[in-house]
Design brief:
Number of strands: 5
Order of helices and strands: HEEEEHE
Strand order of the largest sheet: 1-2-3-4-5
CATH architecture: 2-Layer Sandwich
Helix content: 10-25%
Oligomer: single chain
Distance between the termini: 26 Å
Shape: globular
CATH class: Alpha Beta
Largest sheet: 5 strands, mixed
Number of domains: 1
CATH superfamily: XisI-like
């Protein structure tokens, strides 16, 4: 399998795994957004926690120029750990939620 197709498959599986976990409270649905054509992947929460409306991104990953760009990770189980365990090397993962000038200190790709 070509590396890009392999990465798409890994990211899709990770996203679907996170989205399959039931919320511990409220009437909150986790939705997996998988767009392999534009290489855009997300998990969002939608619903209600009592009187409070819930709608927000939990995980947002893009594949850009053959690298995995973690745009957002609002989890208590870091998504990069799952990506690495599935075989994606740190050199192909960009922690895009860090400013560009600090990425060199993360141990991951800089995306530059």
């Amino acid at each position: 399998m070509e590396r890009l197709e392999q990465y798409r498959d890994i990211v899709r599986r990770v996203i679907e795994d996170y989205a399959s976990v039931k919320s511990s409270h409220g009437k909150i649905v986790k939705e997996a957004i998988v767009d392999p054509t534009k290489d855009h992947y997300e998990v969002i929460h939608v619903g209600w926690d009592g009187p409070r409306r819930i709608h927000g991104t939990v995980i947002h990953i893009d594949i850009i120029d053959g690298k995995i760009w973690v745009q957002c990770d609002n989890t208590n189980r870091p998504v990069v750990d799952e990506l690495e365990a599935a075989g994606i090397p740190r050199s192909d993962i960009v922690l895009a939620f860090h400013p560009e000038h600090l990425r060199q200190f993360t141990g991951y790709a800089t995306g530059g």
